[in-house]
């Protein structure tokens, strides 16, 4: 491991860290030497299993609810008990359902609001609650896991696409507002081989990949590698988007 890749002594929080892109990111960050707090919502068992699999370090788990800003305040207090400094925040948690864009009746007001709260207000609540701890780092990065749906308007449903566009816009605003101590970067995958979108199986992913320039399925670890690079290499990038989609958007 080169010096630039070494995250020893750095603390990271990954929301949605027990599964999918979040879990792959936890593994990448821990392998690079970071201490990682695994944020989970519904599966403490899965988070604890992941925790036990990590290399030695001051790793931990934390229950986080995107709809409950108080859970992020509790996390801030937990970090204060560890010295009060947070170096990496990965907002990986989110929510969607597969609904055809023409089916306006299926995308109810309640579901629309639920998606917006999870995908926009949740990450914003995390950033707001942890801003002091991030600023204490002096060289912190926030990575918002977004989607190419935010600029293609093609995705699991209309509200999901809108939420990711808003998340990218927030990243631009906060990239300007939180510098120089804190960088803010969106990492935007296309379809990823996880169970995030109910009903999308491996066969569908492989079929879709055939029409992309790189003709390969994007794996969770591909996205995690890009997130790691935001922490280790992209030191002069903020308020921007890194696309990880095999060229699907082209």
TrEMBL record:
Similarity comment text for this entry: Belongs to the short-chain dehydrogenases/reductases (SDR) family.
Record keywords, A-Z: Oxidoreductase
Molecular function in Gene Ontology: oxidoreductase activity
Species classification: Bacteria, Pseudomonadati, Pseudomonadota, Alphaproteobacteria, Hyphomicrobiales
InterPro entries in the cross-refs: NAD(P)-bd_dom_sf, Sc_DH/Rdtase_CS, SDR_fam
Pfam families: adh_short_C2
UniProt keyword annotation of Oxidoreductase present: yes
CDD domains per the UniProt record, alphabetical: SDR_c
Protein name in the entry: Short-chain dehydrogenase
Species, as recorded: Bradyrhizobium neotropicale
